[in-house]
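This protein record is not my work; I was only asked to verify it. The record follows directly below this note.
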Amino acid sequence: MSDEDLVTRALRWIVARRLWIVAFYALLLPPSAWLAAQVRQDNSTDRLILPGDPDLLALRAFEGVFGGGEYALVLAEAEDPLAPGVIERVDRIERALRDVPQVSVNSLVSVFRRARAGFEPTPEQCAELRRFAGGTDLLRRQGLVGEHHLAIALTLTVKDPADRRAALDAVERALAPVRADPGPIRDLARLGQPWVNAWLDETVSQDMRYFAVFAAFLVVLVLGLYRSLRTLLAFVATLGTCVAVSVAYIVATGGTLTIVSPMVPMSILVTATSSLVYLQSRFVERPSDAPVDAHQLFALRNKFVAVTASIFATAVGFAALVVSNIRPIREMGVWVAIGLAFTWVIVFTLFPALQKLLRTPTRGERRDAGARLERLAADLPRWTFRWRWPLVGAASVLTLAGAAALFGIPGLLAPMPVHTDPVEYLDPSSSLYQDIRRLAPHTPGLSVTHVWLRGPLGAVAEPEVLTALHRLQQAFEADPEVGAAVGPTSILRLVRYVAGAGDGWPDDPAAQEALAADLEALLPAEPMLQHFVQPHALAEAQITVVSRAAEHEAFLRLDAALHRHWDAVRAAEPALAPFSMQLVGLAPLQARVAQELVPTLVESFALTVAIIFAAFLLVFRSGSARLLAMIPSIFAILVMFAVMRVTGMELNVATILIASTVLGTSENDQIHFFYHFLERRKDGTVEESLRHALLVAGRAICFATLINAGGFLGFVAGQNPAVREFGALAALAFTLSMLADFSALLATLWILSGERPAKRETLNPRRAQA
């Protein structure tokens, strides 16, 4: 018994047991849908990082010593930020946050309250606070006071999105009375990563419109193509099962959706719908004299290899993303690949059973859309032969232009940059985005890097070490890459300032001894100081460096500057000789990991090409056919990058995925085209083979492109700019791929074959259209 007989028998077995199969899925769907509805979402940009990343492990170790959290700012903007009305309202906010366990506050008011116990925002004490703030530059250098703002620095000790949302809700409740009665405050602006992460989380529920758009598009498309409610019901039931089972698997394995995860169900929906279109389009082409049951088996068997191959190609395209070191991209690749394995099973079991059970009509019973493409199939091969050289030449020029746009031209054009600033994922029209972009230049920055210093037991409390730490901090502060540097000596200088001895670091050894004694005395009771000095062993300290660095290149410059100053000060200060230094921080880690998007693009794309080529070399037994099949996809991908360059779109965590996504998905069309082209090429001419492929697969390619483009275009309805751009670019690439299918690909086949079209009178139409 041949493999083909086994496939046919299996398909016949499925159709014969349609009631059992539908009953099985009817029992499977409710628990799968319930489980899928429990899926958790975390759009935080720290989800970019793999749990085993060495730098992340170092950060977690650092947090185990000094504590951790997410840092944010509230800026009270006013003409005079030290006016009594401003001070009173900032004090009101801090009092409201005092009992919130997840939020700690630091501001000019809280610093002054610790210095002057019992502070109340009376006119007299506000005047004293103004004198206190004006007598030192420490507070301004730390960003707590600006020319026209007073900053409230927040540290949120949160573990997950729910914790973050609860903490930020408490902050918003504290801000609400002041927003209602702002007095001299012009605005209360919010800046920082917690609000960025919360905004990204909120877009998930709002951006379920992706799927509403797709559902509406699906209804219109299926009814427009097949003019049948029964066919629509078969499509909807099959697609719903594919998505429910796939997302249920994510939940069952403990997965959490991230910023790019909406692409998981959408990719499964688009691929599954395309497969159903290919199957149904072949099914509806029933000759009037063919029995429905026999034709259904023929259609399923005829499309089995091509549909299987196309689903496999898409799965491979996403599975190749496992080479990425970026956590959500790797997870997305695995989830889509596994979801497509489920999809393949469901498409070839549930859908045939529903076709039979619902008696979905064929063309003999109801005319479907797309009949005009028959004339196109007759005329297009000759047209592409006539214009073969201009078509191939134009496609080649556009492809080279796209490659230049992406990779650059040495000495003329820089490669397309990769942007990693999480703020760029915000909607530019949102107040949060506008506040960050408007006010960030007027603050020391929003990116935090910790300089972690480790030495012998008790060393941090030595006067010589504290003096050396002060000089190291001064060196950091003087560097143009640094916005602010805060360390244990900052707290000790404030203590000295409050005592009336000035805010400078003393040169007198006795005064330095006194400050070292103050450190040991204050440390057990002062949480702020514990954030900079290991409380018990006194062997470790840290200096928090705040900067405006957002992209990886900026963090590299900052890293180099901090190491340069460390080497210089350590060489000049023998007390630091036994200490080691390590830089840790979530912001630089995120930027470094996001920079690995470029290897993700190149490696995953190369791996996709290699695996698809090898796999379909076995299917088509033709290396040249496989290479030719990639022409439309490569053309579409590179031209899309040219469009990105011209329109100013950026490579980021979402748009970097387009190459692998488009290659894996658009290859479906070429697979079906070449399957039927080679089917006729065994005993036919190039022209006859092209016509046959266009007649059998042309309509389905057009319909599948509509599915792909329309499905991903649904992302344009979302709020996340990166995902919106992904949707628009993917839709463009799918359209370009289809145009190349029907132009450059056919022209290339003519050129490589060396054949010419037959004369009109000698061409056998029946043979060409068989």
Observations:
- Residues 3-44+207-419+594-768 form a domain with the Multidrug efflux transporter AcrB transmembrane fold fold (CATH 1.20.1640.10).
